[in-house]
Amino acid sequence: MKFRPFLMLSQLVALGAAGAVQAADRECAQSPGQVIDLCVYIESGQAYYEVSRKGTKVIAPSVLGLSFEGEPQARYTAIAGAKRNSADSTWEQPWGEQRFIRDNHTELKVTLKGDTPLNKAVDVTFRLFDDGFGLRYTYGAIPAGRKVAVTADRTEFSTIGNYSAWWYKPLEDDRDEYLYKEIDAKRITLAETPLTLRSQEEGGLLLAFHEAALVDFPSMLLSGDGAGKLTAWLMPWPDGVRAYRTGPFSTPWRTVVIGESAGDLADSRIALNLNEPNKIGDVSWFTPGKYVGVWWEMHLRRSTWASGDRHGATTENVKRYIDFAAKYGFSGVLVEGWNKGWDGDWLRNGHQISFTEPYPDFDLRGLADYANSKGVRLIGHHETAGAIVNYESQLDEAFSLYAGLGVNTVKTGYVEDSGDIKDAEGGKHWFAAQYMVRHHLKVVETAARYHIAINAHEPVKDTGLRRTYPNWVSREAARGQEFNAWGRPTNRPDHLTILPFTRLLAGPMDYTPGIFDIENGKSVVTERLQATIANQLALYVVIYSPVQMAADLPEHYEARPDALRFILDVPADWENSKTLAGEIGDYVVVARQQREGKDWFLGAVTDEEERSIQQSLGFLTPGKRYEAQIYRDADDADYRTNPTALTIEKKVVTAKDSLGLVLKPGGGVAVRFKALD
Ligand code: NOJ
Ligand code: CA
Hints:
The protein is of the alpha+beta class. It contains 13 helices and 38 strands.
């Protein structure tokens, strides 16, 4: 038997089932800091992997492989080869929550020998990091030009022990726009990812399941068996097939982040590291920034997307927003409802939307020039209503029009029931099935050619593709602020303490924070924002997005210059980010350092409970003094009774100090640490 340094006796014992298996059919690897151990082996014709963390088994033997139409389930007979590799490099994000990202991993690539033609030689690549792992398949034996139909992704994640999960029922009409529920993980039937689990044992681990580099494949959900085993579940095509590919192909990475605290999950960079480097070249034409827009007023029903007396996107009204943006230094003005197609039932008439023809009362060219002359850019809007055949037929013209006007960011929208996206033949697709995964990337690639960045609403979820396509700057993919205008019901305070450890693990979110007119004339608290004004400010730090909206109306900002100051000061691009503290569903404290600046910012939000946190400032640069500009809930603030009561204080601090943070119910605190030295 060949000597295998990775096959140590202690591992065989730790990994239990290992002892029963022949060494030749078993290969193991460890993460760089020896935190994660992973073994892959074959038993009774099935390929399995299992994972331990610091000697404790976290993933019990779990099946690997895909199934294909037209051939029986393959039996694997051997691990034909194993290649090991390791890498420790640092790469730079053009913009982001962290400028320099370290990619320190070991890689184990095994070739599974199967007894069916498509499974003759299947490569499984495992990348092990100290905070988790990713695995992907490469079906290299498929002849070039041969079309294959994937009928299942059989990949399992067999969890051990009792976990709580943050979950909403997937595939409902509103896609990913639901409030999370905390449930026993064994009750998961089907779940969207990122799916976060927390051990119910004191001091137990947290796990986050997701995928990276979702390209030309359907989005992966996870189905539960009632006993803790999760299995990949791919969004199907209308004919039930999960994925079509031609010739040899690789799947997206299936990822598991493993942490001891909720913050460990939030600060993991595994998903970005598993994506390919930038494919679109220089993106210095895109600068992260904050924007305002003709938007909240429509959601409040004060104006309309449609033309007529109450049309929001009129030349005069947009000028007002441009003037406001220029006065306060916002870089963008989003305009929705500018183009023909919104009249009547736009949700049903998506095929009639024009992406090039403005309404007559909206002077597109004049306003773009006006904005540019004031150092502001219009932000474009393409609402497709899910009619993507219509959209794709206008794609080049639409981006070319905007590019010619100096517009370099476009918000897209796909408001349609989750399983009702129609193709040219009338076939209906899930919003994140392979058909739509292809569509979104086509939009992003086309936009890149015109130097346009995309912020997609109702999108396919983020899988770290911003590394490869750094013009894919943000997206929605969760329940955003808009629900707080509609009031059916509005977002609970705990929503913003769950998002950082679930949806936001995937990447930037265009939540659209910053509503100051919290009560909006409503007396029932569940019909308006369930937040304090300090909470709204804190979101600019808690939620990462390189395009960050100040969503409220200009007059509401001008009425609160004290609070507005924080929004004007907070950047949208960061040198570094750290999740300092947090419990899923209770609270979170995040610190971020301004990119190419010395200032630090801190944001903390709580659920409906009041909280006091003694926060060490050890993240600040040692030896430097900072003026902490603290925007906190006033002593009598409460999201139910007194949501706009804000206290602003200043004090000089250093890295040796700690700061007492008091968060009132539904509240928060936002701090700018202005460097004094
Ligand atoms: C839903 C988006 O999330 C929202 O931001 C937008 O205003 C509407 N669709 C209309 O496009
Ligand atoms: Ca939406």
